[in-house]
């Protein structure tokens, strides 16, 4: 039975990002479309929405589209630490960065990330940054790759709704759980999925469903039944042509997306139709 869904169109959680190089603001999600203005390297843009490989942004009171690859990456600190002036623990501090703070990563050099925090640039040791603001040891992942039901119940992972979704990036599997009568999680589905390629990895951590779109895409492709994980990351269908009339890439069990998690059409639709906003997601 289809559940009553709370659909929303709220913005991505990342309010601002920074351009990594000189970038054009396009009228549509295509580099061949009209250029509204040129955005210089290091400029701050307001994020309106995100869809994997494109962001809708506002810059100088103009709203348009920018390729995701030209913008900074959002990370979060999982402890209080210092923003350093150079990539060294011996360099001068620039600012104190509290636990759970959002930073925008401009580049990574060795084990250090060049970031912007509160419009101040500096360096943070990359180990102290995660996609969700939790420490890498937030859960015991002993059984994550071999017995997902045990992982979920041993860790007593809370979810504000009856459902919980997990994705195993190593084995490229997505699981859907439901809360049983005894309070334990019961596995409903186990599906093959395709995840982010090494250059555009899928985010890791604990997230909560935050809206959905019936489809999105570009001049080259369309995906359907998109359920937002966080920011520009979604669970969605395999790739269709731009008109949405035929599948052009049905590959699953691979690492080749721009960061989203692709599922068979019927599985993406099940999540879209049945999993409520605020449901917990664990990806590792």
Automatic annotation (TrEMBL):
In the record, what terms sit under GO molecular function? transferase activity
Protein name (Swiss-Prot/TrEMBL): SH3 domain-containing protein
Active site positions, chain numbering: 236 (proton donor/acceptor), 260 (nucleophile)
* Annotated CDD domains: YkuD_like (cd16913)
Q: Which GO terms describe its biological process?
A: cell wall organization; peptidoglycan biosynthetic process; regulation of cell shape
Q: Which PANTHER family match?
A: FAMILY PROTEIN, PUTATIVE-RELATED, GLYCOSYL HYDROLASE FAMILY 19 DOMAIN-CONTAINING PROTEIN HI_1415
> Record's Pfam families?
SH3_3, YkuD
